[in-house]
Input
Amino acid sequence: MKVLITGAAGFIGSHLCDRFLSEGFFVIGMDNFLTGSPDNIAHLFGNKNFKFIEYDVTRYIYIPDEIDLILHFACPASPVDYLKHPIHTMKVDSLGTLHTLGLAKKKKARYVFASTSEVYGDPQVHPQPEDYWGNVNPVGVRSVYDEAKRFSEAMGMAYHREHGIDVRIARIFNTYGERMRLNDGRVIPNFICKALEDEDLTVYGDGSQTRSFCYISDLVEGIFRLSTAEGLDGQVFNLGNPDEVSVIDLAKKVIEKTGSSSGITFLPPMDDDPKRRCPDITKAKTVLGWYPKVSLDEGLENTIQYFKRKLNKK
Ligand code: UDP
Output
């Protein structure tokens, strides 16, 4: 079985390459290194079951190989990154989605799309089930990400309905762990790096906003099950950890776990920052038999060790 993974050098994409290789797949990884890093896949070069193509998915994709499965995971995912690359972000999840769906049609491949909890925007329903339509500002700064992901979901469903492509959509909630960049900009790498440097942690707003953080190994298990189970075409799944925590409590936890002398600095809130976010994972539990197993404490400890190594700290 051959799988094409776009965004292969990214945080989640590189872990997916590892998982699919360990399950006996031939993996074709694609990335343009806009936000991904060669370091994340350096250990795979030389693996006879891995082929890497440096390429930008916003351009027409030609691949001669047969492909059984396509995972479209390319896209800047940190608000810092997509606010810096707003137009390219929109292209990756419009043109890039179109090209990878076209490839799925040509190769008669199954297609898994990396969507996001951001499709729910600043949700008015809590926790968020898959049948909630969301509350998105279509012209706000975050819309470049939210609306591109929503467009991709709609495009995926159109290919499913019109061409019978086996399209599956994963709505991924906040995920963290090894291989996030030091300057990723998302809250967990930011807090850990600041804490390890004994600098103040920056909380945007009053810190009462919540998120639910899923450790990378749990997410990869969920994506693998969603990609390999039979009979899920045209279906949408929330994948995330329903353990909800406020940003201020997360900051305190990181300071405690790193033994840091950092304080907390409050900065103005980010525009359109969702106030609460927590997945309803009843469907993933029931249909995929999946639920997260790694607690925030355990996942944070692993991630702190990773960033200590990156920063050469003991
Ligand atoms: N946040 C923060 N300080 C930081 C980075 C993020 O207070 O240094 C907040 C951010 O405003 C948001 C939450 O943490 O409310 C999660 O932000 P992140 O960038 O990780 O991802 P998001 O869930 O917003 O996509």
The pocket of uridine-5'-diphosphate is lined by residues 78-79, 174, 186-187, 190, 202-204, 209, 211, 247, 270, 273 (CB under 6 Å).
